[in-house]
From TrEMBL:
Record flagged with keyword DNA-binding: no
Residue ranges occupied by any Penicillin-binding protein transpeptidase domain in the UniProt entry: 253-585
Source superkingdom: Bacteria
PANTHER family from the UniProt entry: BETA-LACTAMASE YBXI-RELATED (PTHR30627:SF6), PEPTIDOGLYCAN D,D-TRANSPEPTIDASE (PTHR30627)
Taxonomic lineage: Bacteria, Pseudomonadati, Bacteroidota, Cytophagia, Cytophagales
Cellular compartment(s): Membrane
Name under which the protein is recorded: beta-lactamase
């Protein structure tokens, strides 16, 4: 039986094999198989650029829609390298005087005593370029060319406007060679740098999938839409900005003016001032080199990046916190005790907070903060060290709610946070936890370890003007047809009650009145009531004058402008900083300076031009 099964199995296998061979060799079966097989289709992935020819970088406009910066045609004149140049004849051709020709050529050279024939390109206006074209036969060695770049219509606002990095490469190379780039953090670029992506716009990309006969079979990747470069509508008032820069001139310092109701910055000055086209212009190499080496550091964006002790203007913050925490009341008086801290003003006894602010009495605020730091809660009555630590931490928490010891988030690429000391900081600095109020009393007059930027000083003043709230300061009020960035429309509050801010106002008004520290800067003659506070900041140097500071707002009953001024090595805040601030207020509110202050204005501008 087993043998029969094996033979039957082998026979079955042979039969199946024969059937398979006959099927493979059949012509009809082969044709059928070819008819069933699907042909392989090929597709092509393409990338189509949309809008590359029409993409234009957005413009910068001031708050009144005057164009400040736009992309346009730059006319460049290349001077001959070998043939001698008749500068007098060239000046006649261009309509320049001989001195102007020599100065323009000198500014275009990267350093003094550059070799003869060094390549020089001079910027020309459209009218000057037209003259060169007409005289091409008489001047065959001159080469006129054009390129697309940023054109500045005003010579103010350099620290605000900034520059596109792509056009500042020559400047970056100069800074790298002089090893000054890291110090100045030169790639901040103002609003041009901060909003670069929106200004630049973007081309669109389509990603069609094309078959072998040219039909569109969908997309092989997500398409992106074309977006034209957006215009930026700045908060800056160009006329006010230019006027404020005239008052600053070649002096070191800053001036920040803003609208307290919106946080919009009306003027933003970093001194010494310079032309905004300097950093990208092809014929300003020497000027840039001089600026990089200038000991006054004109390229330092002072309002945002330089944090200094605020001096007596900080007494406003300490008073508000002391009122909030119950360390004083508006009616609290102290003796002007010179053994505690010197007071440079001869004045009546500060019988209240108003009198203390009016005369900026140092002993008054020494004792104000001493009450705050040396309070001993019942829970810590047996541990005065812990009480001081807790009180300083509480003081710092309230002061930080003013936007200090942190960046405000202004729309400039780099901003310093400033500094407020902590209990742990003093533990480490004093090398003991047993430090006393006497070792930190300088905080009471805005000196010592505390540091604030110009933006923070202006913002603190806006908070006082608003009785406790603020919008973050910003430089752009509109992007294209839209408003500012969303965070600039969010109102922020401090931890201080509005009544305690209101208690500061009589003292700030007193500062500007008869006997006050800034009485000579009153605008009462033109019907403007100013609330202010002066500050004189010791800088620790025996040879240098103190720094001068002033903050204030006007009109006092309905603030429309806040101004913070800081002038390095300028002396007293009352005589140096306050006049600049109130003239900016008057210019903004009235449009002109009253005849009474014309001589005063001329004197300030003279000092500004001469840098003192």
């Amino acid at each position: 039986m087993r043998m029969v099964f094996y033979k039957s199995k082998m026979g079955l296998l042979l039969l199946l094999l024969l059937i398979g061979q006959s099927a493979c060799s059949s012509p009809s079966t082969e044709v059928a198989a070819q008819e069933v097989q699907e042909p392989t289709e090929t597709f092509t992935q393409r990338r189509v650029v949309v809008g590359a020819d029409s993409l234009v970088r957005g413009r910068l406009l001031d708050r009144n829609d005057s164009v400040l910066v736009a992309t346009g045609t730059l006319h460049l004149l290349k001077l001959p390298r070998k043939a001698p140049l008749d500068t007098s004849a060239l000046g006649q051709l261009l309509g320049w005087g001989p001195a102007t020709v020599r100065q323009r050529i000198a500014n275009a050279l990267p350093y003094d005593n550059a070799p003869a024939g060094y390549p020089v390109n001079l910027r020309l206006t459209a009218a000057e370029a037209a003259r060169v074209r007409k005289a091409r036969k008489q001047w065959p060695t001159l080469v006129l060319s054009t390129q697309v770049g940023r054109r500045y219509t005003a010579n103010a606002g350099a620290a605000v406007l900034g520059y596109p990095a792509a056009e500042a490469q020559a400047f970056f190379r100069q800074a790298q060679r002089t090893k000054r780039g890291r110090f100045y953090k030169l790639r901040n670029g103002g609003v041009e740098g901060y909003y670069n992506g929106l200004l630049m716009g973007r081309v669109g990309y389509l990603h069609p999938l094309i078959d072998s006969v040219g039909n569109n079979r969908g997309s092989w990747a997500t398409d992106t839409t074309f977006r034209q470069g957006q215009d930026l509508h700045l908060t800056i008032d160009t006329k006010l900005q230019a006027y404020a820069e005239q008052l600053m001139g070649n002096r070191k310092g800053y001036l920040v003016a803003l609208d307290p109701k919106t946080g919009e910055i009306l003027a933003y000055v970093s001194g010494p001032v310079y032309d905004p086209a300097t950093l990208t212009a092809p014929d300003q190499a020497k000027v840039r080199s001089e600026m990089l080496y200038d000991e006054n550091k004109p390229l330092l964006n002072r309002p945002a990046m330089l944090a200094n002790p605020p001096g007596s203007v900080f007494k406003l913050v300490n008073a508000a916190v002391a009122l909030q925490l119950g360390a004083i009341e508006p009616s609290t008086g102290f003796k002007c005790d010179q053994t505690l801290i010197k007071c440079v003003h001869h004045h009546p006894v500060p019988s209240s907070l108003t009198v203390g602010l009016k005369y900026s009495c140092n002993p008054y605020f020494y004792q104000t903060m001493r009450n705050l730091i040396q309070r001993v809660p019942d829970s810590l009555v047996a541990d005065t060290v812990a009480a001081r630590h807790a009180n300083l931490a509480e003081w710092r928490r309230y002061v930080r709610s003013f936007g200090l010891d942190s960046v405000l988030g202004v729309d400039i690429p780099r901003e310093a946070p400033g500094f407020l000391p902590t209990p742990a900081y003093y533990d480490k600095a004093r090398k003991t936890r047993n430090w006393t109020y006497r070792s930190i009393y300088s905080l009471s007059v805005g000196q010592g370890e505390i540091n604030m930027t110009g933006l923070q000083m202006a913002n603190v003043t806006a908070i006082i003007a608003n009785r406790g709230w603020y919008y973050p300061p910003h430089l752009v009020r509109g992007i294209g047809d839209n408003g500012p960035l969303p965070r600039f429309t969010q109102k922020r509050y401090t931890l201080i009650d509005s009544a305690n801010f209101a208690a500061l106002l009589p003292g700030m008004l007193g500062v500007m009145q008869r006997g006050g520290t800034a009485e000579t800067s009153s605008l009462a003659d033109v019907g403007i009531t100013v609330a202010g506070k002066t500050g004189t900041v010791e800088n620790g140097g025996d040879d240098d004058d103190d720094h001068a500071a002033f903050v204030g707002f006007a009109p006092a009953d309905n603030p429309k402008i806040v101004v913070a001024v800081y002038l390095e090595n300028a002396g007293f805040g009352a005589t140096a900083a306050a006049p600049c601030a109130v003239m900016v207020m008057e210019k903004h509110l009235r449009g002109s300076i009253a005849p009474k202050r014309k001589r005063w204005e001329a004197r300030v501008k003279h000092r500004a031009r001469n840098g003192y």
